[in-house]
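Typical record was shown:
=====
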Amino acid sequence: MLNVWAGANKIIYDADNVINNAANLPDKSYASGLIAQASIFKALALGNLAEYWEKVPSGNGQNVSFITRAEGYNKAIATIDNALAVIAVNPVNTSFLSNVPSGIDIPNTLNALKARYALFAGNYALALTSANAVDLTKKSSFTYDAQNLNPIFEIATSTNNVIQPKNINLGQTGANVPDAGDGRIPFYTIINTTVRINGFGSGTFTQIPVYLPGEMTLIKAEAYARQASPNLTSSLSELNKIVTKTASTDPFGVGAALPALTGTYTQQQLLDLIYKHRCIELFMSGLKLEDMRRFNQPLTDRKRNFFPYPFAERDNNTNTPADPGF
């Protein structure tokens, strides 16, 4: 727990230093690149804390107070909004882009993360607007080289001693098991005597998406289904874009290639299907625990709802909340 907790808080601290000091640079277009890039990592760190803990630190420092996880998501959104405003006034210049890895598409990533965290915060109108602002034909990913290796491959795929999929069901049971012929099964898994990791952990230099275009489509489907006046027709239409999508039409090659869902569905039936396809489409993305809570999945399907706070925080911060009961 300490590795995740300390890592996220250190990223936020470093990102704040970059964001605050970049404003003093004379080259405003270079500064906007620094602010936007740092904001992406700060938002991801805030999102990780809010996903796994009931409350998150309000900032950095000694004996900091804590805010709710919903406030944590909104803080991530505010960070993104600031970055979007900065690059709107001073577009990121080529001088900055030539000095950072080329894989991350800054504008689309900012809007994609905004859509993700707005959905998690229950702001469905904002989630829908932000998801619609993302160009689904573009890729945004973390790139790796001989000095920076794909961590999933190095930790898990290259050895059976740590973790591998139990089977080809992509972590699903019952009605949520992938349909026969779902093209995402051979994308994410490969059978080599036993079931092994494939997909974004398949090789030393395999890129890992910051977000999948399919996540944005599923956010739209869920937002339509959950808004105050549910639009089930539009929700089903967006969901079918995922169900019928082929690998050749997806920037990352993720495609179910299944027949479209037909007929009439209730709101709950659609939400059940959206949950199923989120778990399959976003396999190993780290978002499932948030999904399990949001879709009211049985508690018996997970070992706990939220993580306990690391001892290093509790021993040094008197404001640390009580650990969750589950």
